[in-house]
Design goal:
With about 90 residues, the protein is mainly α. It contains five helices and two strands; from the N terminus they run ααββααα. The protein has a two-stranded antiparallel ribbon. The protein is globular.
Length: about 90
Amino acid sequence: MSTTITRDLLKAKIVTNDEVSAAVDVFMTDLTTRLFQFKSGHSLDLANAVRVNQPAKSVVAHRDRNEKFRHGMMRTAILMGCIETP
């Protein structure tokens, strides 16, 4: 059984760059956000995606990093996050 990650859905054009950016914005606004629902019906646990990505997790802990760097790290964690199918 293969694991589907957000990046796979982005490559397949099932989710859009705008949706991924929206997920990042939602998480950066509230670091406890769990569920993010994509228009396709797929969902992602944002907090868990960041928690299991060690580089992103460490950036969350160090708020002294600039916003652009933090955004990029959160985006990477979300792209690597395991998706729940609808």
